[in-house]
Specification:
Blueprint: H1 13-30, E1 34-39, H2 47-52, E2 60-65, E3 70-75, E4 80-83, E5 97-101, H3 113-124, E6 129-132, H4 140-150, E7 155-158, H5 160-168, H6 172-195, H7 202-215, E8 221-224, E9 227-229, E10 250-258, E11 268-273, H8 279-298, H9 305-318, E12 329-331, E13 338-341, E14 355-358, E15 361-363, E16 368-370, E17 373-376, E18 384-385, E19 394-395
Parallel strand pairs: 1-6, 3-5, 6-7, 11-19
Antiparallel strand pairs: 1-2, 2-3, 4-5, 8-10, 9-10, 10-11, 12-13, 12-14, 14-17, 15-16, 17-18
């Protein structure tokens, strides 16, 4: 944590320079003049943060040039421009120009504002080959306006796979930050266990986890879980349905998926019971714990996510549980969920130094069981579990 500074955490400049160099090397090979990324919220759009070390709360666009420099289009007063080439701003490492405009996702008529700023810069630079990062998740108004304005003067390509592959493999600096996130979540969960009392409402419990995470440098995240009586499901749900009181004889699924200092995500989930867990719940939890261990053993360089998912579903079915219909394991970084996803539609193979969240679950009309931890894929041997919280049902 940085002392005497407004920033809670500052990504080392050397780490940012490593990313920029890798990207520019790939851009040269792919004959791309500029990459364009846009994010409007951090936990599902970490591209801009990966380039700039700054999270997105409103639309933020990055123009990353093959010949050096970076234009940042950010939310702010319309028409403002700052040239940082002569006087670099330490709060904007690598950025040579900041342009601000006042657009809002829910004000439809403003959707072209950011694109107009980007197009103006790209026309002046006479850019010919433009690579878009995740264009299908960008607002339609941004992409369509950019293409309409530049017309036939530029050639567009989709460079998402190229950048996703770079983001997914973590450097030593990033792994250090991810370890800190896992340790923070372990500590937050322990604080919840020490303070939780019968009669507390579910949102009070998730608020404890949020508070202790933020006191340790977390910036944002999701805290899911509701309580229920044993014999009924207690699944994952957001705050607006966390109004139930957690009483004696009840149980709760608590999922902590916040980022740590620096913006890196991990996620931790355990079951909590005020009393004694039922034999049915114990059996289901044991199955999910075994399923997680089997997946962790398969997290090796070169492994196919589709094959890992197939093996998981075969195990769950043999165990008498449900096969996965959504997503039970995936990579994480600046995004809560990033590629590779462990399911049958993923094409990116696993590599060493990927940070993988593994959260198999068992849901039925009478229970919900879940275990969630993060694992680091290693060059040799099984993946390393990053969380240290005991893998059990916590009976209070």
């Amino acid at each position: 944590m940085v002392e005497n500074n407004r920033r809670i955490w500052r990504t080392p400049l050397g780490e940012l320079e490593r990313r920029w160099a890798a990207v520019r090397q790939g851009m040269a090979a792919r004959r791309v003049d500029v990459l364009v990324a846009q994010s409007e919220r951090d936990f599902s759009g970490g591209y801009c943060r990966w380039f700039t070390d700054a999270p997105a709360a409103n639309p933020k666009s990055v123009l990353f040039y093959a010949d050096g420099g970076l234009t940042l289009i950010d939310h702010g007063a319309a028409g403002r421009r700052r040239d940082l080439r002569a006087a670099p701003d330490p709060e904007h490492p690598g950025v040579t120009e900041v342009i601000t405009t006042s657009s809002f996702q829910n004000a439809d008529y403003t959707q072209g504002y950011d694109a107009d700023c980007a197009a103006d810069v790209l026309v002046k630079r006479a850019v010919k080959r433009i690579g878009l990062i995740a264009p299908r998740r960008m607002p339609h108004g941004f992409v369509s306006r950019l293409m309409e304005t530049l017309g036939e003067a530029a050639e567009f390509s989709d460079e998402t796979d190229f950048i996703d592959a770079l983001k997914a493999v973590k450097s030593p600096s990033e792994i250090e930050a991810i370890r800190a996130t896992a340790q923070m979540q372990d500590a937050a969960f322990a604080e919840v266990l020490s303070k939780i009392r019968p009669g507390m409402r579910d949102f009070e419990i998730t608020a404890l986890a949020r508070y202790h995470g933020e006191m340790m440098g977390s910036e944002q995240g999701l805290f899911l879980g509701v309580s229920a009586t044993l014999g009924t499901p207690a699944g994952l749900a957001p705050k607006h349905v966390q109004g139930r009181a957690f009483e004696r004889g009840d149980y709760m699924t608590l999922l902590i998926e916040n980022n740590g200092p620096g913006g890196y995500y991990a996620e931790l989930a355990r079951l909590i019971v005020f009393g004694k867990a039922s034999a049915e719940l114990e059996e289901a939890f044991a199955c999910t714990k075994q399923a997680q261990a089997k997946t962790a053993a398969n997290l090796r360089p070169g492994a196919s996510p589709a094959e890992i998912c197939q093996a998981h579903n075969a195990f769950m079915t043999a165990c008498g549980g449900p096969p996965e219909a959504r997503l039970y394991a995936h990579s994480q970084g600046y995004d809560l969920v990033e590629r590779p996803l462990v399911r049958d539609d993923e094409t990116m193979a696993l590599q060493a130094n990927m940070n993988m969240a593994v959260h198999p679950s068992w849901g039925s009309s009478t229970l919900f069981a879940l275990v969630c931890d993060n694992y680091l894929v290693r060059d040799n041997g099984p993946a390393e579990r990053l969380h240290r919280t005991e893998q059990k049902i916590f009976e209070l």
